[in-house]
């Protein structure tokens, strides 16, 4: 391929470029670094072209069933509406001449259909094809996302069940609060993932729709059989017809899709952030898996960095940022303009491929999660029972002291214990006011390992609710 470049000196330079090098030169990391082959295949140029051709073929079959075009023509169009006949290179060649992507597809398909090509795209406008093909791509992508969410749910279900009695310190504001359990942590994430699966089912009902409504959505170009044509096309493709459109399927649906993908990303971000914090050297209660030959640092050989969790958290920022352009794509000029098109070429494949990467990494992290029981217990007792201030206060109120008075007394005792580096319960035991209400046995009964309330039952409730939803 030759490119003529006019430089400021008005001299003409000719640059020879191998066309195969240009086509195979990856720029965006989703092309070579992120996402599974399955997800990247869905959004690659070849499959996107095939989906456009699938819609054109379904339209031809619908016209033939209603007697609008010869059955033979629909058969030929259907047989040749695939990338074995319609080559991506030819579509691009035509588009470079006419500067219209869908007409390039229409012309390329018409070429290979010979005399039958005159019936291709009959009555349709570009977004009848684009939006319906997008629905097919989104359907394939959501099926893959759903499979990951189901697997993630299973992993969390097992972790919640296994660790429902694993007591650990709970933290608020980054400070030791009161005890909780790892079962609670895992069950919280489990419940959230289960809600995403419910949201996904609801979302699919709204978003997996196509259209055959023509230029501004009135379906005038399809004549009196317009609704029949649309219903036949959508039934053929496994979609539902949109209730009303202009030239576009309403983009509030795409915005909802992007918000759903970002919401799933936020859960994975939450999981990754918690694991990163719990893997800190000073805490080290859990760790993401570290492979035998994995290198943690180019200069510090000892490092075991939480790189997978960090990647999950980092990629979430991209998905969050893609929500805004999706929202901005909803308000367009009159019955449509083109400002949404270029945006959707970027944010749809990017968001699906990156979420695919995040889900697979999170599953891998949790499946291989390392836990350090000795550090969990060390941290539980790290503050010398300061974390038992709440149950101490409640025990005093149980024995007759007013709640506010008990709070102030325990606050003073806690500050004294902290400043003197002593055990809270020992300081309390030596306090005359406390001894008026509590016995040695009462104090001894205050054990962090037993102060987890209904944690086990709460975890069981979540597990049972998820098992019920599975049915």
Give the secondary structure arrangement, pairings included.
Layout: E1 2-6, E2 12-16, H1 19-24, H2 37-43, H3 45-65, H4 71-80, H5 88-98, H6 101-112, H7 126-162, E3 167-172, E4 175-181, H8 182-207, E5 209-210, H9 226-237, E6 240-241, H10 252-278, E7 286-287, H11 307-328, H12 339-367, E8 370-371, H13 373-380, H14 389-398, H15 403-420, H16 424-429, H17 432-437, H18 440-444, H19 455-470
Helix pairs in contact: 2-7, 3-4, 3-6, 3-7, 3-9, 5-6, 7-8, 7-12, 8-10, 8-19, 10-11, 10-12, 11-12, 14-15
Can you walk through the features of this model?
61% of the residues lie in helices and 7% in strands. With 471 residues, it is mainly α. It is elongated. Mean pLDDT is 92; it is low at 1-22.
- How much β-strand is present in the residues? 5-15%
Pairing-aware structural class of the strands and helices?
mainly alpha
- Cross-sheet strand order for the largest sheet: 1-2
Second-tier CATH architecture of the largest domain: Up-down Bundle
Question: Could you please say which CATH topology of the largest domain applies here?
Answer: Fumarase C, Chain A, domain 2
The CATH homologous superfamily of the largest domain = Fumarase/aspartase (Central domain)
Distance between the termini: 58 Å
Instruction: Tell me the count of domains.
Output: 3
Extended strand count: 8
| Largest sheet geometry | 2 strands, antiparallel
Q: In percent, how helical is the residue content?
A: 55-70%
Q: Please identify the oligomeric state.
A: single chain
Molecular shape: elongated
Low-confidence segments, ≥5 residues, pLDDT <50? 1-22
Q: State mean pLDDT (0 to 100 scale).
A: 92
In the CATH scheme, the class of the largest domain would be Mainly Alpha
Order of helices and strands: EEHHHHHHHEEHEHEHEHHEHHHHHHH
Query: How many helix segments?
Result: 19
Query: For the CA atoms, what is the radius of gyration?
Result: 31 Å
